[in-house]
Structures are given as structure tokens and as C-alpha cells.
Amino acid sequence: MNQRERQISRPGRAARRRRVPGLWLAGVILFVGLWQVVSLLPNVPPYVLPSPVATLAALLSDGRLIASHLLATLLAAVGGLAVATGAALLVATVMNASRALGEVIYVQMVLSQSVPLIAIAPIVLIWFGLGAFAKLVIVSFVCFFPIAVSTYEGFQTVQTEQLDLLETMGATRWQCYRHVFVPATLPGIFAGLKIASTYSVLGAVVGEWLGGTKGMGIYMTRALQSFRTERLFAAILVVMLASFCLFACVRWVGRRLNPWVERRNV
């Protein structure tokens, strides 16, 4: 495709990108409408499937309480995501420095993902108690793998010819990382971060389910035990929105730090 064809095709792509929010909104409206219709069926009692109106009413009536629980969950999610990011970048860098050590660590990481989270979480709570630190460990465990693997795979995309060229010009190892490894790895890092950002909220809620004093997991457990299904659905909706907002923030930062990827997709 020549330059003129690229210029002609860009308005069409821009128009399609502008239509995406409208399609999302239409999908949400369709889903909510279908939800409302199903909830009004005579053989669907409210305690099985509350209507969107009842869910919204529960959300508004418990708004202040939900906000306080949500803050505790978000603090654990963001803190665990930050710890997992730092640990994953460090481990991926060590794996890239030594191929033999990298293969050993890679196998251990894959094996760690075969253990169900529901089995790991109680052990973490036994070791670290029911406080915020236990939730931080659980979230970090959940988020570590996708970031570490994406970063390590990003390191593997670096061409040896680029490194050889820098080394012949007298570049240090730090300069090689700064000018070659980091730009090549950033898209992979943020790909893993986008996955981990959604896992982080899930990990925090699971930690709160198994034991905790505050958070959306605690609120959901209490709503379930009292058979207030509309509150449970309201909590699920809030957790979904929180995960999406965290994902959108990571995506926004990734676009700012990877402008060449954005230009390539335009």
C-alpha cells in the first residue's frame, strides 16, 4: 500500500474507531433490556434473578457502604498489581540474562499456575493472617505470571543484530537495555499488565471471601448469607466496573508509552 492509499484508508479507520463506543453502548442496552425481560418472567423469582431496576436501587441505597468496601478492594488490587509488576520485571530480566536459569524459572512459573487459587489463598491466610498484607500477597501471586511471561517473551523479540551493532559501538549493558530491550518489551509488558489488571480485582475479592474485615468480597458474602440477591448483583456490577476502569487506565498509560504501536495500528 502506497502513501496515497494509506491517506485514503485512514478516514475510514477513524470512522470505524468512532463507532466503537456506540456499538459498546448498544450492546450494554441490549444486555440490560434482555436482563429486564427475563427477570419479569413468572417462573423467575426475584431472589434468583433480581431485575436491573432492583439492582440499581440496591446500589443507590448502599452506595456509601459499597464505596468504603470498594476502596479497600481497590487498594489491595492496585498495591498487589504494583508489587507483581516490580517482581515480574525483575524476574524476567534475570531470565533474559541467563538462558539456562530462564528455562528453570519458566517451568516453575508454569507449574505455579497449575495450583488452584482457592488452594493457595487459605495457605496465604494461614501464613500472613486476615489483614491487608494477605490480600496483597494473593493479588501479587495472581498478577505475577501474565506480566512475567509477557515481559520475557518481549525480550525474545529483540534481534541479535541490533545488540551486536550497539556492542560494536561500545554500548554498555544498561544502554542496550535502554535503547533496545525496553522499547521492544514495552508492548509485551502492557499486554501482560492489561490481563493482570483484571485479575487483580478478582484476586482481592477472592482473598476477602476467604477471610478479611473489609472489601467487596466481604460485602458480597454478607449479601449472599442474608439472601439479598439484588445487593449481590449490585456488588458484582461494581466489581466488573472497577476491573474495567483499571484495565482502561493501564491501556491509556500503555498508549502513551507506546506511541509507535498506536501509530502502526492507525
Discrete helix count: 11
Fraction of residues in helix: over 70%
Mean pLDDT: 79
Number of domains: 2
CA gyration radius, whole angstroms: 23 Å
Total strand segments: 0
The assigned structural class equals: mainly alpha
Short description:
The protein has 266 residues and is mainly alpha-helical. The chain has helices at 3-39, 52-61, 63-97, 99-112, 117-128, 132-156, 160-168, 173-210, 216-225, 229-257, 259-265.
Q: Can you describe this structure?
A:
- This protein is mainly alpha-helical and 266 residues long.
- The chain has 2 domains: 1-43; 62-265, MetI-like fold.
- The protein has 11 helices and no strands.
- It has helices spanning 3-39, 52-61, 63-97, 99-112, 117-128, 132-156, 160-168, 173-210, 216-225, 229-257, 259-265.
- Helix 6 packs antiparallel against helix 8.
- The model has no long low-confidence stretch (mean pLDDT 79).
Sequence-ordered SSE layout with sheet pairings:
Layout: H1 3-39, H2 52-61, H3 63-97, H4 99-112, H5 117-128, H6 132-156, H7 160-168, H8 173-210, H9 216-225, H10 229-257, H11 259-265
Give a quick set of tags describing it.
266 residues; mainly alpha; MetI-like fold; 2 domains; 11 helices; elongated
